[in-house]
Amino acid sequence: MNYREIMLSSTDYIEQNLKVDLTVRLLAKRANFSPYHYYRLFTFYLGMPVMEYVRLRRLAHAAAELSQNKRILDIAIEYGFETHNGFAKAFRKTYGFSPAEYRKRVSAHRPLLANPIAGVTAGEGQNLPVCRIERKNGFYVAGFILRTETNLASVSKMPALWNEYRVYDYDNKLYAMVNPKEHGEYNICFPSGDKETFDHVNCVRVSSLDGIAAGLYKNFVPAATYAIFTSPPTRFGNNGFVKSITRTWEYIYETWLPDSGYIIDQNKLDFEFYDERCHGDENSFQSMEIYVPVIKK
Q1: SS3 129
Q2: Which CATH number fits the domain that encloses residue 14?
Q3: Which of 103, 151, 233, 248 is most exposed, with the fewest beta carbons within 10 Å of its own?
């Protein structure tokens, strides 16, 4: 009996039936287990109780649907929340924003799905990052300098600062000051004026630099062809998300690039991109993107 495949089948069933009344007893019966053993197996493979998982999946899909013009109350009821207040409270606890606030930022990415086949402990890195090659136009950014380093030519050479962003709430301040049309924060290392130091910047994309508040860092990211890597969905808690980012960078340099037929375009910038796929509480599965400028060998 392959318990991992049984749990994967169970999570698939949950995903397809989030709008109906799901119970441990119903799910256990479908998997041919007693509720007791099903509960224990599910918690072992997914790292959380089954109904907590169901709640988080419902919230994830509700979050994605906020990009549509549906009433928030209708979305709440559709996913099993009896009142607007109950939905708003659960949503804020998980995503850190009210549904109305989050609606301003969401861009309707398909909700990330945990994969128990990838391993019992989220963040073990057994899934490989997904890569695509795309040409991107240049764009302006504005944001905060988080730190300045010497001899730091790439964002990949420094530890991920995701926890630091959360502590100091940089992104909320930035959205309030800039109100960008696109949701998503960029982490970019820009060479400073003397070319020997590098400013690590948390920024958002803006249509132009006109009218940007004084005190914000402003710059331009040139057009480039990028290898874009999506990190495997990983639970945020226990430093799992930060480790996943580090592993993705390691995969890029140690595994993907040597056999890819590409080399790094050293005249362009690499950066990390974070959007609503990496919002949530300690138990949510999160992902982000790494952009590496490349040219054919």
Answers
A1: coil
A2: 1.10.10.60
A3: 151
